[in-house]
Write a sequence for this structure.
């Protein structure tokens, strides 16, 4: 499914920052993809199931949930963090700022065993 | 037991200055008046703490003395042809000042985290200028509040209560005295409590602002909808904006991180300028890190530029897209980096992170981070606003004094003191060379 990715602050991600970058709270919140229920039905995924988000710069596995703050069909929201930054383009169009919002992505159900832990992600670089 | 009042919270750009922190036997046992972020910070700041200086030996980081860590850090910076000095938004203005001095001394590029938050805002402000005011004036006078691409009920938890919709001001006493307009791509928690919610298409902000400006001038918009918003609704909201006595536009990264970036801010400045033909209207970015506003301010008065400042020619130059850290890293131009109170390995796109980690890396931070885990030299620091004093600028550019409420661990100096020592060592090495 084609979608537009918005990354941003969520309460859980912000609290996770204060509890530690290797805390469960930060891990859980930053690896959550908030979706429209209709889109989840189209992908045949339930809340808590793994999905793969792909751009031309890479792909990442995260966990789908029904968005607590309504998102329109065709938009997915993921909190800021190292997981989603794996697939963000570094191009800044002469401003210094990459596009962290409004990014075209492909979303699909995933068969991976789990989302990478923070420690594994650090080793990934 | 000792309760300290008037404590300034070092979390976000609101810098709430009414906290009461109670300390018993050198430990914080409660923090009153703050938001959930503030409370979590004060009660958990010791978690995942860096306890001693570290140096990389092969795959491992091993403990080292502070003096030796400072020497190693200075040596890396002196040996580098083009080091990057990054972070600076979660530390004091005093430390930022020394950071700029260090950048000049080593001929590096210094950038702060606004480069990945409100960099486009300050670019637009520098090009055009903007009408603003203090948060106190908003609290006392504003009868119309706009949050555009900002969701304070998730990001700046007391902003609405202290300064806008829930604030009891001198002339605006309650929620009934103010109108709330929210513009966002999602129906956020903030949007749910709005009087007018405009759901804009992703990357459609520039078009919507242009349409609103046409609506203000009663010009005909020859379309049914702009950026996904029916024209009738755009015209209705334009009348609401025009009809207020004192309007305040607060905006977030929804404008700076999406298509258009600094041009979205050009459009926002034009919109606010237009509105001032009919009424009083101001604008203010919702700053994230507690002292990112200070980083822009200190960089600006020291170098003439608010971020992305390059000293490689021996004098400060500024060209976002060239001298900004993501671009320097993406082009693989730097050959060393020092990161102060920031975690670019978590916050930057992968390509920039890989470049950062390819070269010698120094990290000064109170906490374990993804960046610190990969660093060659790690120097633990005291937490400014909790364990040491310092100055920070609120999002409305009002400077406030951060208080010290507890002692830092004996192994942790302030960022300011660590940077002072590195700077002295750099100067000593350069003289010796």
């Amino acid at each position: 499914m084609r979608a537009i990715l918005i990354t941003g602050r969520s309460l859980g991600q912000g609290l996770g920052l204060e509890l530690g970058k290797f805390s469960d709270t930060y891990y859980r919140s930053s690896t959550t993809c908030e979706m429209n229920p209709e889109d989840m039905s189209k992908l045949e995924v339930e809340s808590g199931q793994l999905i793969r988000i792909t751009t031309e710069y890479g792909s990442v596995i995260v966990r789908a949930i029904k968005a607590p703050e309504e998102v329109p069909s065709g938009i997915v929201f993921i909190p800021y963090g190292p997981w989603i930054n794996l697939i963000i383009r570094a191009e800044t169009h002469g401003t210094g700022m990459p596009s962290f919002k409004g990014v075209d992505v492909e979303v699909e159900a995933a068969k991976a065993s789990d989302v990478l832990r923070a420690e594994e992600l650090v080793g990934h670089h | 037991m000792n309760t300290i009042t008037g404590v300034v919270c070092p979390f976000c750009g609101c810098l709430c200055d009414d906290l009461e922190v109670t300390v018993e036997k050198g430990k914080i046992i409660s923090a009153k008046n703050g938001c959930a972020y503030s409370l979590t910070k004060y009660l958990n700041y010791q978690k995942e703490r860096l306890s001693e200086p570290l140096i990389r030996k092969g795959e491992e980081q091993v403990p080292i003395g502070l003096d030796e860590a400072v020497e190693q850090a200075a040596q890396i910076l002196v040996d580098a042809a083009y080091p990057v000095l990054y972070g600076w938004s979660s530390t004091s203005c005093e430390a930022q000042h020394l950071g700029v001095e260090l950048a000049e001394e080593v001929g590096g590029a210094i950038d702060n985290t606004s480069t990945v938050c409100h960099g486009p805002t300050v670019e637009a402000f520098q090009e055009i200028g903007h009408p603003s005011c203090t948060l106190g004036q908003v609290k006392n006078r504003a009868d119309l509040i706009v949050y555009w691409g900002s969701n304070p009920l998730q990001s700046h938890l007391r902003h609405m209560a202290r300064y806008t919709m829930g604030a009891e001001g001198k002339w605006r006493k309650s929620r009934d005295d103010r109108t709330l307009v929210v513009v966002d791509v999602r129906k956020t928690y903030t949007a749910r409590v709005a009087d007018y919610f405009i759901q804009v298409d992703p990357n459609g902000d520039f078009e919507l602002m242009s349409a609103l400006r046409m609506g203000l001038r009663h010009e005909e918009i020859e379309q049914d909808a702009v950026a996904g918003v029916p024209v009738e609704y755009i015209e209705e909201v334009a009348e609401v904006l025009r009809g207020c006595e004192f309007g305040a536009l607060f905006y977030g990264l929804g404008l700076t991180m999406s298509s258009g970036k600094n041009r979205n801010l050009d459009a926002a400045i034009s919109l606010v300028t237009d509105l001032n033909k009919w009424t009083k209207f101001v604008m203010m970015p919702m700053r994230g890190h507690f002292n990112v506003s200070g980083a822009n301010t200190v960089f600006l008065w020291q170098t003439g530029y608010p971020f992305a400042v390059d000293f490689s020619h021996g004098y400060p130059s500024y060209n976002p897209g060239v001298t900004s850290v993501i671009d320097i890293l993406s082009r693989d131009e730097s050959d060393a980096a020092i990161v102060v109170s920031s975690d670019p390995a978590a916050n930057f796109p992968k390509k920039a992170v890989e470049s950062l980690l390819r070269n010698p890396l120094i990290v000064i931070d109170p906490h374990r981070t993804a960046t610190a885990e990969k660093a060659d030299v790690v120097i633990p620091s005291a937490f400014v606003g909790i364990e040491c004093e310092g100055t920070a600028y609120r999002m409305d550019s009002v400077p406030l004094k951060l208080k010290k409420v507890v002692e830092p661990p004996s192994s942790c100096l302030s960022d300011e003191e660590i940077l002072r020592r590195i700077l002295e060592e750099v100067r000593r090495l350069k003289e010796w060379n």
